[in-house]
């Protein structure tokens, strides 16, 4: 695994050693236990502070799961948000979950919907399913079918069942239009 290096890191004569440390940090998060968990967290933290969105997401997971750190859901939410703001799709999805559950502060449903939509627009299948459910609850049947169809195509089997219920309430024209939109849908760019 590698990081994109900024100019400062490229000028640093120890950048190869830093890359090894970052690999150790990611190995820790990915359950391939390195010899020194504290050092692994240090590398992940340093990469996170330097703006690496993947590291920010991994640090959030460490806080969320209590892996190498004492579990702290507010810290997890803070790092998920930073990674989401940097374009990391899985962080967008988790940020939405944090806002809807109140982990960030008091429940913020508007922000939860915002981040869920962003993740859905970038191809996160669970976010497409959740966003489709949200659109359905708001009465946006055709849009809901589009996102539920996308989630279904990505393997979310529960989305197919919900979509089939909604389709029964749509006119043939609306159903055809929703399928056309799903067929021509393209994910927005992200850092994944």
UniProtKB/TrEMBL annotation:
InterPro entries: F-box_motif, Sel1-like, TPR-like_helical_dom_sf. This is Uncharacterized protein.
């Amino acid at each position: 695994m590698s990081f994109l290096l900024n100019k400062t890191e490229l000028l640093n004569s120890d950048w190869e050693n830093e890359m090894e440390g970052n690999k150790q940090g990611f190995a820790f998060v990915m359950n391939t236990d390195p010899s020194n968990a504290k050092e692994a967290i240090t590398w992940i933290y340093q990469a996170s502070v330097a703006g690496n969105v993947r590291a920010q997401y991994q640090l959030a997971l460490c806080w969320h799961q209590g892996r190498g750190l004492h579990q702290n859901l507010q810290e997890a939410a803070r790092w998920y948000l930073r990674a989401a703001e940097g374009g990391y799709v899985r962080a967008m999805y988790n940020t939405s979950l944090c806002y809807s559950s109140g982990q960030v502060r008091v429940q913020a449903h508007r922000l939860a919907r915002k981040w869920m939509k962003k993740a859905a627009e970038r191809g996160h299948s669970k976010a497409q399913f959740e966003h489709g459910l949200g659109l359905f609850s708001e009465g946006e049947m055709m849009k809901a079918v589009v996102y539920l169809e996308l989630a279904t195509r990505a393997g979310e089997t529960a989305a197919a069942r919900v979509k089939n219920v909604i389709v029964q309430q749509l006119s043939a024209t609306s159903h055809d239009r929703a399928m056309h939109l799903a067929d021509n849908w393209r994910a927005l760019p992200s850092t994944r």
